[in-house]
Amino acid sequence: MKEKIISKASELFLKLGFKSVTMDDIAGEMCISKKTIYKYFCNKEVLIEESTSLVHKQVHEIIDTIVAKDYNAIHENFEIREMFRNMFKNNTDTSPIYQLKRHYPEIYQNILSHEIDQCNRYFGVNIEKGIREGLYRTDINIPVYVKFYYTLIFHINETTVSESEAQKIELEALEYHTRAMATEKGIVELEKQLKKIKV
């Protein structure tokens, strides 16, 4: 039952926002009593912590699945962006990350420290791959570019209230990041990926 509650709560938090969803909402959606939820979680904050851990785990499992498909480095980044877009497409248009930072800053900071470690690893591996494929320049200072990109992405999500607006800016950030690193071959691949989105 505990896992079912976490799963349903995660779904509702991402769809409606961390602040908006109440314990009553979760109980109502699951056709159980609020008392049943409190049997497993002493308060909403604990449930949010468990839910964000689950979402974090799911996101990184999906990223690993995309990476395993062995797309080229630029295509891979666009596939990951699409995965995030699909994950948040039913959202009521208030960015869940913005809400989490604003209303539950301690939980947000805890997630952020884990995310930065994961981003460092993933973005670094992606840049190395792109260099090997001739899509990114060989003279890139990888740690600096990784830091630029995750700072940009986290800042967008922390400060943009609207999820759809955040996604538009994230696409611009991805294009900006890719153009900053790309060789001529990389620019051709970037234009190809951008064209697919506009179709």
From TrEMBL:
Q: Where is the HTH tetR-type domain?
A: 1-59
Which Pfam families does the record associate with it? TetR_N
Entries under InterPro entries matching the protein = Homeodomain-like_sf (IPR009057), HTH-type_Tx_Regulator (IPR050624), HTH_TetR (IPR001647)
UniProt feature coiled coil, ranges: none
| Keyword DNA-binding carried by entry | yes
Tell me the domain of life: Bacteria
DNA-binding feature ranges: 22-41
UniProt entry keywords in alphabetical sequence: DNA-binding
PANTHER family associated with the record: ACREF/ENVCD OPERON REPRESSOR-RELATED (PTHR43479), ACREF_ENVCD OPERON REPRESSOR-RELATED (PTHR43479:SF11)
Q: What is this protein called?
A: TetR/AcrR family transcriptional regulator
Origin species, per record, is: Flavobacterium lipolyticum
Source lineage: Bacteria, Pseudomonadati, Bacteroidota, Flavobacteriia, Flavobacteriales
